[in-house]
Design a protein that fits this description.
Number of strands: 8
Number of helices: 10
Number of domains: 2
Keywords: DNA-binding, Transcription, Transcription regulation
Radius of gyration: 22 Å
CATH architecture of the largest domain: 2-Layer Sandwich
Distance between the termini: 44 Å
Protein name: Transcriptional regulator KdgR
Strand order of the largest sheet: 5-4-3-8-7-6
Order of helices and strands: HHHHEEHHEEEHHHEEEH
Strand content: 15-25%
InterPro entries: GAF-like_dom_sf, HTH_MetabolicPath_Reg, Tscrpt_reg_IclR_C, Tscrpt_reg_IclR_N, WH-like_DNA-bd_sf, WH_DNA-bd_sf
CATH topology of the largest domain: Beta-Lactamase
GO molecular function: DNA binding; DNA-binding transcription factor activity
CATH superfamily of the largest domain: GAF domain
CATH class of the largest domain: Alpha Beta
Largest sheet: 6 strands, antiparallel
Helix content: 40-55%
Oligomer: single chain
Organism: Paraburkholderia solisilvae
Length: about 270
């Protein structure tokens, strides 16, 4: 009996030509920084122009592929990246982060939340309230703005220019979002990169100072953002200052990074995939 022949028969038996075409396109575009025209994709894959056209239209409709502003080039969106965040490794990140977040909340007497990029904005995946009577809590599972929050700008700041452009292309405004022009946003991202973190007055709630540090992957790009919406006490109670809280948050991110590096070689999600 020819085992290899049987293997080939099984491979032929379970072929899914349409799926193969779609995967071929995704794998090809994953290797291209500037995207490809439909003619280039057709030539490189050696397929019929009409079938490539139909498949590209479906991939664009399902938001796995984006078309350039001129409509002549195709590149990967970040949808695969968003899907990766729903995979079990993200659960591992949450389980590793929560004990450190709880320690921070107890020491700083402030709340803290962890957010990741998801389909054009940020998704809050972990939240710990401060121990005091007052605090700011963002509801678990909430989607927060990409361009007008400390979390969003920090995620944008620690990406390659190509990935940042893709994220902004996928972005849709959330309710009440404060607009910002492209040059101002780029300047804000450059400032955050230089400082290593974001400290800014909240553009959603008066009296709150958002402190955000990126959780960086091995490539140096942010895979998550850890944020403390800092509230300053004005009564006689002596709580940690803004500067002390910033140092505690920096230590928390460093401890989480060290813990992950010492326990895992892989990452919950690395940019970009969708």
């Amino acid at each position: 009996m020819d085992v290899h022949a049987d293997d080939r028969d099984d491979g032929d038996r379970y072929r899914a030509p349409a799926l193969d075409k779609g995967l071929d396109i995704l794998e090809l575009l994953a290797e291209q920084k500037g995207g490809l025209t439909r003619a280039e994709i057709t030539k490189l894959l050696g397929r019929n122009a009409s079938e490539i056209y139909r498949m590209l239209e479906r991939l664009v409709a399902r938001q796995y592929v984006v078309r350039s502003a001129g409509g002549d080039r195709y590149s990967l969106s970040l949808k695969l990246y968003a899907l990766a965040h729903r995979h079990p490794p993200m659960e591992r990140l949450i389980s590793e982060a929560l004990p450190l977040m709880q320690r921070f909340a107890a020491q700083a007497e402030q709340s803290i939340h962890l957010a990741v990029y998801d389909r054009g904005n940020l998704l809050l995946i972990a939240q710990v309230d401060g121990p005091g009577t007052w605090g700011i809590a963002v509801r678990l599972g909430s989607r927060v703005g990409l361009v007008d929050t400390g979390s969003g700008r920090t995620m944008l700041a620690f990406q390659t220019p190509e990935q940042r452009a893709q994220m902004l292309a996928e972005h849709t405004a959330v309710k009440g979002e404060v607009t910002i022009d492209h040059d101002a946003l780029e300047a804000a991202c450059a400032h955050i990169r230089a400082a290593g973190f974001s400290q800014k007055d909240s553009q959603q709630i008066f009296g709150v100072t958002d402190l955000t540090f990126p959780l960086l992957g091995s490539s140096g790009q942010a895979i998550a953002a850890l944020t403390c919406p800092f509230l300053k006490r004005i009564d006689e109670y002596v709580a940690p200052t803004l500067e002390e809280t910033t140092a505690m948050l920096r230590d928390t991110v460093q401890a989480l990074s060290m813990f992950r590096e010492s326990n895992h070689d892989d990452e919950p999600a690395a940019h970009p995939a969708s």
